[in-house]
Design brief:
By secondary structure, this protein is of the alpha/beta class. It folds into two domains: 2-57, 2-Layer Sandwich (GMP Synthetase, Chain A, domain 3), CATH 3.30.300.20; 62-126, GMP Synthetase, Chain A, domain 3 (2-Layer Sandwich). The chain has helices at 2-8, 31-35, 40-49, 62-69, 95-102, 105-119, and strands spanning 14-18, 21-26, 52-57, 77-83, 86-92, 121-126. The strands form two sheets. A three-stranded mixed sheet has the order 1-2-3, sandwiched between helices.
C-alpha cells in the first residue's frame, strides 16, 4: 500500500497479493491518479513490485462498487441482502452480460475478496 502512495500519492484503502498480482482498492475519485497518464503509474508499480497490478475503485455503497468493478458488463440490478447472519450480493444481468462477467473468473474472485474484506459481504451471486 505504501508503494502506491509513494508513486501516485494515492493512499489505498486495501491491498492484497494473489499469486503474481497485487490488487489495490483505490479511494473513490482517485482512480485516474492511481493509473497515471497513459498508465504510467501502473507501469512503474509493475516494475517496482515485479507483479501485475490491478486497481478497483472504492465506493461507500457496495452496489456502486460492483457496477464499477464489472464495468464491461451492464448490470440490471445489484441487491445487498441480509441472509441469516451474512450479507450477500445478488447481481442480476442478462445472459450476454453474465458471460462477460464469468469469462474472467480471476477478476470475479478478486471482486468477491474485496467485497468480503471491505463491505462484509460473504457471498456474491451472479444471476
Amino acid at each position: 500500500m505504501n508503494t502506491l502512495d509513494a508513486v501516485a500519492k494515492v493512499s489505498a484503502r486495501d491491498c492484497f497479493v494473489e499469486g503474481d498480482n497485487v490488487v489495490f482498492l483505490v479511494p473513490e475519485n482517485e482512480m485516474n491518479r492511481a493509473i497515471g497518464k497513459n498508465g504510467s503509474t501502473v507501469e512503474l508499480l509493475t516494475k517496482r513490485l515485479g507483479k501485475r497490478i490491478e486497481l478497483f475503485e472504492y465506493s461507500e455503497k457496495p452496489e456502486k462498487f460492483f457496477e464499477k468493478a464489472f464495468f464491461k458488463a451492464k448490470l440490471e440490478k445489484v441487491e445487498i441482502r441480509e441472509m441469516k447472519e451474512n450479507k450477500i450480493a445478488i447481481i442480476s444481468v442478462d445472459a450476454a452480460n453474465k458471460k462477460i462477467i464469468l469469462q474472467n473468473m480471476r477478476r470475479l474472485r478478486r471482486v468477491k475478496e474485496i467485497a468480503k474484506r471491505n463491505y462484509d459481504i460473504e457471498e456474491v451471486r451472479i444471476r
